[in-house]
Write a structure and sequence with these properties.
Elongation Factor Tu (Ef-tu), domain 3, Alpha-Beta Plaits, 6-stranded mixed sheet, 27% helix
Length: 595
């Protein structure tokens, strides 16, 4: 056990984690020849295309140092704020963390939040300055920032480059010397934490775990404590680039277990695995339950695919424990699910994965956050969907979730960022000038304001420099109104939303104009209206497609033309009474991107 090291890699998005992990795998000989490619651990096509890590990936490496053989378990983690749940799980399964900072960009918001998470879990932090081969690298400035942050010596910061392989041996040496071996007692009953799971259509559910106490042998009878289900360990093993079976895994090991589980609900990430005959006394305090931030309805395009969509979401939830969903129905879209996501990128990724991995074509409604509605009778209810709101006469007040937003940027973009945050109803709490020309801003903001396009706007104002991170804090009373969109007097529940009363007129006007461009012309006039309660606040009209019925009249009396036009008008009126307005999927999506 003294020769095992479990560590993870934490950093802001795009600071070079996956590339540095590639070099570590190459140096230790874990990946060789044909298997070696860019971003080895990013197994999804989606991760490669976008150049981001979506899932944490565990892999075991063997390394010899001072004539002793060491087993190093590495977990590469995502850097985007939407996948911080993956990071919390990796941290729970590790004793040390490599903190990677880009030498060209310095410390950014996600670096800080991941670092605080690691410090709370008492991990040994090894600071690494990556991308040292870049002409734009600023080693001295960035080292000052790291020293300010960690209080370490400058000499402890390892200079590295994922591209050239500089400093990789020093990193491996630091892991062996600084990261403590796993604590635990091999003699105690088995106690293992499930930190991930995947679905295999031939072998059932494969759970990845880390053993804290005891050991497990192939063929052992085990039970999952939370679900109280018992299984036989058909196969156990370690995670190299593929899965390698073993007969026994001991305290401190990271591995996988296959026990023919077919029911998705029987495996919960964060659960404890123990033996049936000699169970452990306590369960492992894993990572906190994930709280979805953004809610959206997901509906199958074809109503017959409803059950397939449920099965696909359940399988996806195995691989992505931060996704939550429950059944709902809509007058416009039929049966579907209300899904909870950690953010807009997470929502986009889930939609893309449903399409690629399960061939599910889905419609997604406008994302919104969860509100607390206080009624005049004194009841309080959580509302995730504007159509679930009680009537206005029953509502006393509505509370919306607020967040603490942290933005780190260069001082020259300070004015633009301030304006953006204040426009989004933000309250400046503090600003802090960091080493160099960087500023750290803290705002209190409503979560609903950052759900739409805040992140994109922030990046464009700061030319991509600003980094953003947030934590939900509390609920506060707000002046909110339900904005309905009506097509020919019929409310489209999938387009309704809760907005602040100050922004309602502007929002309604923009949606009406946008829908006018997107909904194709029909044989009859279509009135698009935005309404709050019974009050119409904005309108635009899509004119009917008309045949030129007077084309055959050359000259002659005007009454002939008028007679033909009146006849056509009657037909259009009759058509309007029975006609259906078809709203294309593009319209639902582009309402999100109003700018």
């Amino acid at each position: 056990m003294k020769n095992i090291r479990n560590f993870c890699i934490i950093a802001h998005i795009d600071h070079g984690k996956s590339t540095l992990a590639d070099r570590l795998l190459q140096t230790t000989g874990t990946v060789t020849g044909k298997e070696m490619q860019e971003q080895v651990l990013d197994s999804m096509d989606l991760e490669r295309e976008r150049g981001i890590t979506i899932k944490s990936h565990a892999i075991q490496m063997n390394y010899e140092y001072d004539n002793e053989k060491y087993t190093l378990n590495l977990i590469d983690t995502p850097g985007h704020v939407d996948f911080s749940y993956e990071v919390s799980r990796s941290i729970a399964a590790s004793e040390g963390a490599l903190l990677i900072v880009d030498a060209t960009q310095g410390i950014q918001a996600q670096t800080l939040s991941n670092l605080y998470m690691a410090i709370e879990n008492d991990l040994e932090i090894i600071p690494i300055l990556n991308k040292m081969d870049m002409p734009a690298a600023m080693p001295d400035e960035v080292k000052d920032q790291i020293v300010d942050l960690l209080g370490c010596n400058r000499s402890e910061i390892i200079e590295a480059s994922g591209k050239t392989g500089l400093g990789v041996d020093e990193i491996l040496e630091a892991v062996i010397l600084l990261v403590p071996p796993p604590k635990g007692d091999p003699e105690l009953p088995l106690q293992a934490l499930i930190f991930d799971s995947v679905f295999n259509s031939y072998r059932g559910i494969i759970a990845y775990f880390r053993i804290f106490n005891g050991s497990i042998k192939k063929g052992d009878k085990v039970k999952f404590v939370n679900t109280d289900k018992k299984y036989e360990a058909d196969e156990i093993g370690i995670l190299k680039l593929g899965m390698e079976p073993r007969d026994e895994l001991k305290t401190g090991d990271v591995g996988y277990i296959i026990s023919g589980i077919k029911q998705v609900s029987e495996v919960k990430v964060g659960d404890t695995v123990t033996h049936v005959k000699n169970p452990c006394k306590t369960i492992i305090a894993g990572f906190e339950e994930v709280k979805p931030m953004v809610f959206a309805g997901v509906y199958p395009i074809d109503a017959e695919d409803y059950e397939d969509l449920r099965a696909s979401l359940e399988k996806l939830q195995l691989n992505d424990a931060s996704l939550s969903f429950q059944q709902e129905s809509s007058a416009a879209l039929g049966f579907g699910f209300r899904c909870g996501f950690l953010g807009l990128l997470h929502m986009e990724i889930v939609q893309e994965r449903l399409d690629r991995e399960f061939n599910m074509n889905v419609i997604t409604t406008i994302p919104n956050v969860s509100y607390k509605v206080h009624t005049r009778q004194g009841d309080v209810s959580d509302v995730h969907n504007p159509s679930g709101l009680p009537e206005v006469k029953f509502i006393d007040h509505i509370e919306e979730p607020y967040i603490d937003a942290q933005i780190i940027s260069q001082t020259k973009y300070l004015g633009g960022i301030m304006t953006l945050c204040l426009d989004k109803r933000g309250i400046l709490v503090k600003q802090n000038f960091l080493a160099g020309d960087r500023v750290d801003l803290s705002f209190e903001m409503p979560l609903a304001e950052i759900v739409f396009d805040f992140y994109d706007k922030l990046k464009s104002i700061s030319k991509g420099y600003a980094s953003f991170d947030y934590q939900q804090t509390d609920f506060r009373e707000s002046n909110l109104a339900k904005l309905d969109i009506l097509l020919n007097g019929e409310s489209v529940d999938a387009l309704s939303m809760l907005v602040h009363e100050e922004n309602a007129y502007d929002m309604g006007k923009r949606i009406c104009e946008k829908l006018k461009e997107l909904i194709p012309r029909h044989q009859f006039d279509i009135a698009i209206q935005a309404a709050i309660g019974a009050k119409i606040i904005a309108r635009s009209t899509i004119k009917a497609v008309r045949k030129d019925v007077t084309a055959k009249c050359y000259g002659g009396d005007i009454t002939r033309k008028r007679k033909l036009i009146e006849k056509q008008k009657k037909g259009k009126k009759r058509m309007k009474q029975i006609g259906q307005v078809n709203v294309p999927q593009k319209a639902f999506l582009s309402v999100l991107k109003l700018d």
